[in-house]
Design a protein that fits this description.
Helix content is 62%, strand content 0%. The protein has 110 residues and is mainly α. The mean pLDDT is 74. The chain has helices at 3-16, 38-44, 46-53, 56-75, 81-84, 92-106. It is flat and about 45 Å long. The two termini are 17 Å apart.
Length: 110
């Protein structure tokens, strides 16, 4: 798909989707204070941590991935600890992240 066509499709998807409230709007979760850190990412993805330990390229890729994850959490207002860890009462946070991932992939992001 050509870039112009992909961008046009992405922009159309944005107009078709209504943005749900921030996950903190329900006032039932614990506010998340900061961005996720590389150490926290490595706690979850232990295999990635092992691979990155001896490979600067893999560590750099993990850092870029983490930047995208933190950007997605901010943009999609996934701002409670429960939503970030999958403990949210509904699946709104998961739906938001999945939609962001699909849009990013369509635009050729990694």
């Amino acid at each position: 798909m050509k870039e112009g066509t992909t961008r046009k499709a992405f922009e159309q998807k944005l107009t078709d989707v209504s943005a749900p409230e921030a996950t903190s709007a329900a006032r039932t979760g614990t506010p998340a204070s900061d961005d996720l850190t590389l150490d926290q990412l490595f706690e979850v993805y232990t295999g990635l941590a092992e691979d990155a330990e001896g490979d600067a390229d893999i560590e750099a890729k993990a850092e870029r991935y983490l930047e995208r994850v933190n950007e997605a959490l901010r943009l999609l207002e996934i701002d409670t600890v429960e939503a970030r860890t999958g403990g949210h009462a509904d699946s709104q946070a998961a739906k938001k992240l999945a939609a962001y991932g699909r849009a990013l992939k369509a635009l050729g992001g990694t």
